Amino acid sequence: MVGAATCGRAAGALEVLRAIKNELKKHKLDCPVIEVGCMGHCYAEPIVTISKPGFPPICYRQVNPVIAQRLVREFILGDDPCLEFVLGALEENELVPSFSDFPRARFEQKVILKNCGHIDPEQIEHYIANGGYSAFVKALQIQPEKVTSEVKRSGLRGRGGAGFPTGEKWEICRQAQGKPKYVIC
Hints:
By secondary structure, this protein is mainly alpha-helical. It folds into 2 domains: 2-129, Glutaredoxin, CATH 3.40.30.10; 136-175, no CATH class. The chain contains 7 helices and 5 strands, in the order E-H-H-E-E-E-H-E-H-H-H-H. The chain has helices at residues 6-10, 13-26, 65-76, 124-129, 134-141, 144-154, 166-175, and strands at residues 2-3, 35-36, 48-50, 58-60, 86-89. A 3-stranded antiparallel β-sheet has the order 3-4-5, with no helix packed on it. Helix 2 (13-26) packs parallel to helix 3 (65-76) and helix 6 runs antiparallel to helix 7 (166-175). The radius of gyration is 22 Å and the shape is elongated.
């Protein structure tokens, strides 16, 4: 996976992506290379994550095309995880520190952005496979009053200057006269 959000692109992620694909092709390797969003470590871009059997998924920091080629040759083709370029691992392991070991991790609880850096934001299947649209499907299966009640209970507010409670707004609109009614997102 190559972090190809704005921060990654500004740091050279597209060149890194090209270098990885070219090196894989040169060695006749058929490995998926996925562009992903930002993991929240913009200072370390371009970030490349390699998942290989027998190793934890490892994220590499400040990867340039030369380092990318080396990662393919030494880690994907060989078994040298090139620890000198490691940012962290995506899961607990004995080899390298995981992101959950970072001091800032104890202050974070990713909810909405939990999949950033882990899925391709341009592939709807990735989103759905990670629970995307599940709340929408649930909303279609329950009574409208229950939807409004859950939105009110969530504390969701509008992004306008007043931060008006969304559930309250939906309830007012639902009770207003006239049809059809629209939700604009």
